[in-house]
Predict the structure of Protein white-like.
Amino acid sequence: MNVLTYRNRGNLVVDGTVKVNGKVIGPGITNVSVYVQQEDLFIGVLTVREHLQFQAQLRMDREVPFEERMDRVEEVIEETGLSKCADTRIGIPGRIKGISGGEMKRLSFASEALTDPPLMFCDEPTSGLDSFMAESIVHTLKTMARKGKTILCTIHQPSSQVFAMFDQLLLLAEGRVAYMGPTAGAFKFFQELNFTCPPNFNPADHFIHTLAIKPGQVDTCKQRVNEICDGYDSSPFSKAIQDNMAEQGQENGDNFFLDAAISGKAVYKANWFQQFRAVFWRSWLTMVRDPMAYRIRTIQSIFIAVLLGLIYLRQPDKNEGYYDQSAVQNINGLMFLLLTNNSFANMFPVINTFPLEIPVFKRDHNNGMYRTDVYFLCKTFAEFPSYVITPLIFSAIAYWMVGLYPGGEEFLFNMAVLILVANCAVSFGYIISTAANSLTVALALAPPLLIPFMLFGGFFLNQDSVPVYFIWLNYMSWFPYSNEVITVVQWRNVDTIRCHNGTSCAFRTGQDIIDYYSFKEENILRNILLLVALLVGYRLIAYIIFLIKTWKRE
């Protein structure tokens, strides 16, 4: 199926040509056909109707008015028997209860039937379903076929009732055609070769058993397969197909179907702005409705901010309002902890969710629904508010509970830096997610890649002590830039730091602390601009990796 439809061929070695009525077809076959793959892939937070509305916006011709698209959605919902669950969310196993397996399979057919294609490929449409649901699915396909569609299916262990519903049958064995013709004719063909199907026996099981290569009987089985295939080559069934192909080749003439299948590459039905509007709408709904994407992260930010606020509560002396030596250590440790928490808390949600969406993107992209840049931009813009709001809430709670420098400008600097840090971490998370081949690999890579960035933040290692051979890593980390800004802003206006009982003090003014870390006030603007540059730069690198891997898969 993948070879015939020009889909998922990245890891396949393909030789030969695919012809229809004697003419070689190319990737343009996707312009006149649809492919219902074995695995049902959906965005689980969408309802059935919303999913089909999204599909209609991107699959139907761009000249079709919006109202007609929505009318077509309602027609398909009715045709595929999805009316009762039209407003039910599709569901995410273990997180959001959704529709049944049979309804999910019908939704796959509904998605592909929106454009009323003349040719439909189905890869094991009954896989994983019980006999009743399998028969229901094949009945739906039979109804579509009666309306003039050509439907090609591979099927796994069909019941005798399901098997009898197919009009034509193709049996392959060892790379050869063992039979092709009317389903009912297969009984006569095998009977003439002395491989009669026993009474009350599932014919599909009989044919599979007869053509199977059994361990320990390889030579005997191959001899039997060759006998059957040779018998088919000389049979009336084979001759009828050859004659029909020759006749069709002579009558092709101006055939829209063949012209569209032969002509070059698949084309997008929607223009760039239509793609962006639809994909952004879906990405926004996904972000808002997914409890892991927004609500739990917000609750987590509030909880950690309150916890840190209670641990470091009111560092200046409660009565006199000054900082002492212990407050210096506490506040410096807290500020670096704010940066670390914002990095981990915002990077890992990306790593946990983005790889899981890649299969949906691959299917939609291969179906010619939207471009790679559209998907990446929409995901970035849709999620951006979330990665602004949670650091903002975190900063607002922790800053005033701890008692950092009580100035409006200082608070705004702190909040802005934490937002930039969060989004730098998100961008870096995208790099890891796009570069890794699986969620497991991405989760394993994240900590060892992030920890070296932390070491060069100026808290564990003075900026003047960074080894020259690691200076490049220092420049790539957002920790030194962000730590310098919030440290300078916190201490630059502190004129006095008290000592205990007249003992010698490590720091007497805020400037002493700034000098101790080799930080400079004039670097504030430069550091903020560098944080923005890292945010954008890492996101561009992630997109380039994503684009290259998409191109290789194609």
About this structure: DSSP finds 22 helices and nine strands in the chain. The longest strand covers residues 176-182. The longest helix spans residues 325-366.
